[in-house]
Design brief:
This protein has 157 residues and is mainly α. It has 3 helices and 2 strands; from the N terminus they run αααββ. The longest helix has 31 residues. The relative contact order is 0.07.
Length: 157
């Protein structure tokens, strides 16, 4: 089997390498010649300016500190706020024989109506009401009371 893809030879012809080196050498010599021309003027001049004495004037202002009266002590006002919440729950009415004929949907709608309206603004209010910890599905549970979203509100504290 023969390789149809022939690699070009890695060596350059000698005449191309000579041209590259000659061009680089020419640029180096031109750059050196231009740099040497600028330095001849400064090397041949023998007159150098002597450093002149420098006069410095410094103005200093002196400020005398005068004692001032001590400031009056700051008054701190502390207000104590006590929050109380009262939750009243009514026991469901006892069923009598006359009530046995009513349907279950009538009794269920009346028994949960008071529990659904409980709302606690924060965990302090839930603890003051004695409802902490509040579980998911219990009256008064809300997502803002459950920071770690584990289903139990106001569980640490």
């Amino acid at each position: 089997m023969t390789n149809s893809y022939q690699q070009p030879s890695a060596a350059r012809p000698l005449y191309r390498m000579k041209r590259v080196w000659a061009g680089g050498l020419l640029l180096l010599m031109i750059g050196t010649g231009c740099g040497a021309m600028g330095s001849e003027d400064s090397a041949t001049s023998t007159t150098k300016a002597a450093p002149a004495p420098t006069v410095t004037t410094t103005a200093t202002a002196t400020v005398t500190a005068t004692p001032t009266a001590a400031p009056a002590p700051a008054v701190t006002v502390t207000a104590t706020v006590t929050a109380t919440a009262t939750v009243t729950r009514q026991a469901p009415a006892a069923a009598t024989n006359d009530d046995a004929t009513t349907t279950d949907s009538d009794t269920d709608s009346g028994s949960n109506s008071g529990d659904d309206n409980v709302y606690y603004a924060n965990c302090a209010a839930a603890r003051a009401a004695g409802a902490a910890p509040v579980h998911r599905g219990d009256p008064g549970y809300a997502r803002h009371l459950d920071r770690d979203n584990d289903g139990v509100g106001c569980d640490n504290g």
